[in-house]
Amino acid sequence: MSYEVNLNFDLGGSVILMKKRLLTFMGIGLLVLGLSACGTGNKHTTTASDLPNSGKYEPTLFFHGWGSSYRAEKQMAQSLVNAGLTKTIVRATVSKHGKVALSGQFRKGDYHPIVEVGFEDNRNSNPRQWGRWAEATVIKLQQTYQMKKLNMVGHSMGNMAIMYYLLDNSHKLPKLQKQVDIAGHFNGILGMGDEPNQMTLQPNGKPKKMQADYKALLPLRQTYPKHQIAVLNIYGDKNDGSHSDGSVSNASSKSLRYLIAGRAKSYQERKIVGPNAQHSKLHDNAHVDKLLIDFLKN
């Protein structure tokens, strides 16, 4: 390819020499750019076609709480790596418009990778929107890896992402096998429609007073995938008389049972007690890590 350079002054033979040097310089520069472009275009990204037995991959997705990020998931994710459940951690960043960018990739033969999900619009207070972002994440992973099963772990608002995801997609997307809810505020938050020791549950787990978000989830009593999902519900009690983790009452966390009773494959509750059972400390709690490891391993 040739280029003509017009220098708007006349210096006799010097002009010809300068033209040649400039053309040589530009040619080298374009060659380097071309090679760089080829390297970028050929950068390898693992997809389902690169993974034998792609249907065997069952990732565990972590969803953080309101105002938080994927960093809140790092200890729990690392505890699974340390326990030998996986060697793979992938990050999924979700824009406020639902565009998902993956960082990292599934590895051949590592069938239980971790996906740390981060929502950029992390102060959005619409739980249904969080469910849409969870859906976008699952769709992106399904398109990339053609997975058929997955697990989900949520902390705080991350639990609402899971619940609203299930409300809208309980039968359409890859099967959810295991669901871990940590510090879930299914029927309200202290100071926002709930106060310590005010909310009460009936013997079947039904709240005597339901908040709007909880009422919106009631259809799950008929649509939650039947006998498919094993559920572990972890909540904190600071042991200070409030029967709460400082932000969410134990009754609000335990109200999950009524929403999925009779439909979950199994359901169990675990209470963490003491100062480290505070709401924002539960995702960095060694006892929670152990419960999570045992539940996912089994």
Automatic annotation (TrEMBL):
Species, as recorded? Levilactobacillus parabrevis ATCC 53295
Q: Which Pfam families match?
A: DUF915
Annotated protein name in UniProt: Cell surface hydrolase
Keyword set includes Hydrolase? yes
Q: Which GO terms describe its molecular function?
A: hydrolase activity
Q: Where is the signal peptide?
A: none
What keywords is this UniProt entry annotated with?
Answer: Hydrolase
